[in-house]
Design a protein that fits this description.
Layout lengths: L9 H4 L11 H13 L13 H13 L8 H10 L5 H14 L2 H19 L1 H4 L3 H13 L6 H12 L1 H4 L4 H22 L9 E6 L7 E5 L6 H11 L10 E7 L4 E4 L6 H7 L4 E7 L3 H10 L5 E9 L13 E7 L3 E5 L9 E4 L3 E5 L12 E7 L5 E7 L3 H15 L33 H6 L8 H7 L1
Parallel strand pairs: 1-5
Antiparallel strand pairs: 1-2, 3-4, 3-5, 6-7, 6-12, 7-8, 8-9, 10-11, 11-12
Helix pairs in contact: 2-3, 3-8, 4-5, 4-9, 6-9, 6-17, 8-9, 14-15
Length: about 475
């Protein structure tokens, strides 16, 4: 569940003194009642629950936890840890104490500190630096009513050493830093007056890359590929018929390859990574109907079969990569495995699906053996990159592999089931609307989004 905290979206993150002001008491009490009755079902509506009310509720919710977040038995140890002079010793003591907290408390604490860590990155706007946040949350979390300055010190330490204490992995951290940097870039652009706050102007083509087919579109941070597609069609007065699978494609001219963006993908992060040799084009996805038919009729989740494989640079330690070689592949919901032949027991190579981006097409100079090929980019959490190529014997085979990839990567949904919505109303582009937040989306997206706020203890376990 997305519990309490996916509900202070970034307008909150940057509102001044977000945790120092107190919300209106009656609203806070209502919220608290709701929370206690069923923390899982509370969804905070923006406007009705102003950000200060939400913040007050959170503070009281933690204050009324009974045992307290740090538990009666060990809260003194947390406070004493602040006195350790040696930084390393102090961090390892915090880690030890974190390890003995009940799972729910540990998860709640991590999500809360994660949120505060993000809030303080914007302290230039919201005035809530680490110290201010600590003063507000320390007494609340330790239930000391402000008499013990060490409570604030603990919270300050937890925010400052968030990465080490909570053992945050590089991938999680990089995703957060990217989101924070993107928001900051948008802020800078906004304040330098070069464009309206939070908007990024981009050239998108309709059907082909020609000057007369180009459209200049403002891309808000929340815009999805589906919304961009509808906007372009709407501008050009193109009517979308039932079996027209209009989609937005990322075309890479250097690689002579392209990929249709999934309808729910956010466009802005893709634009930030596009090289000069790439562009976006809106056109029909011709294979979509056949792919949907294939997925509806197939048996089982996996796909296996022979494909011709070629490495960009040698992956398997066989000297230089020369040409395409028959290999046996199995694609499961989590990984793609390559076997030397059908009878091999052990895969020669295995890649997690989440680290792969699959494009249609193979560049001509590699002399692909058939015209039905893929270019695959792999990048893992350590930013190690690889690139390789696959060729199928028939167009149908290409479609089946591609359909299975998309199905696996996007949780089974290739095309929106609802009829296309009317294009969105232009966004009000005050700073408040900047939100890089997948408030829908996979668990990990939700968890890492800037809005992933200190979710209530009950639902937290599903998310950590």
């Amino acid at each position: 569940g997305g519990g309490l905290t996916s509900n202070i979206p970034p307008p909150g993150l940057t509102s001044e003194g977000i945790y120092r002001k107190s919300g209106q008491n009656s609203k806070t009490t209502n919220l608290l009642e709701l929370l206690r009755r069923d923390a899982r079902s509370v969804r905070l509506k923006e406007g009705e629950h102003h950000v200060d009310d939400v913040a007050s509720t959170l503070k009281r919710f933690f204050r009324d936890l009974g045992e307290g977040l740090f538990t009666r038995s060990s809260s003194q140890d947390w406070l004493w840890a602040t006195a350790l002079e040696d930084e390393e010793k102090k961090i390892s003591e915090y880690r030890r104490l974190l390890g003995i907290l009940p799972t729910v408390n540990r998860a709640t604490l991590k999500t809360l500190i994660n949120h505060l860590f993000r809030v303080q990155r914007f302290s230039g706007e919201n005035q809530m630096n680490t110290h201010n946040l600590a003063i507000v949350f320390g007494p609340t979390l330790f239930q000391t009513d402000g008499k013990d300055y060490k409570a604030g010190r603990v919270v300050e330490d937890l925010i400052t050493h968030y990465v080490k204490i909570f053992n945050v992995n590089d991938q999680e951290m990089k995703k957060q830093q990217d989101e924070i940097m993107a928001i900051m870039k948008m802020r800078e652009a906004a304040s330098s007056g070069t464009q309206q706050a939070g908007d990024f102007i981009c050239t998108v083509y309709l059907e082909q890359k020609k000057t007369e087919a180009e459209q200049h579109v403002k891309i808000p941070a929340t815009m999805t590929a589906e919304e961009l597609t509808l906007e372009i069609l709407d501008r050009r007065k193109v009517v979308m018929k039932e079996k027209d699978y209009w989609s937005c494609f990322e075309v890479n001219e250097r690689e002579e390859a392209e990929r249709p963006l999934h309808y729910s993908e956010k466009v802005l992060p893709i634009l930030h990574c596009l090289g000069t040799e790439s562009y976006l084009v809106v056109k029909k996805q011709m294979a979509m109907e056949n792919m949907l038919l294939y997925l509806a009729s197939r048996v089982g989740e996996c796909k296996h079969g022979m494909m011709k494989f070629r490495e960009e640079r040698n992956l398997l330690g066989l000297g230089l990569s020369t040409g395409f070689h028959e290999r046996y592949f199995i694609l499961t919901p989590t990984c793609l495995r390559l076997y030397k032949e059908v009878r091999s027991h052990k895969p020669e190579k295995e890649w997690p699906v989440r680290n792969l981006r699959v494009y249609l097409g193979v560049k001509k100079k590699l002399r692909p053996p058939t015209c039905w090929g893929f270019t695959v980019f792999y990048e893992n959490e350590k930013h190690e990159k690889q690139q390789w190529y696959l060729c199928c014997d028939t167009q149908a085979d290409l479609r089946e592999w591609f359909a299975t990839f998309l199905h696996v990567q996007h949780g089974g949904s290739l095309w929106p089931s609802a009829p296309p919505r009317a294009p969105r109303a232009p966004q009000d582009s005050r700073l408040g609307n900047i939100s890089l937040i997948p408030l829908r989306g996979s668990e990990s997206e939700m968890r890492n989004s800037v809005a992933a706020f200190a979710t209530d203890p009950l639902t937290l376990l599903h998310n950590v």
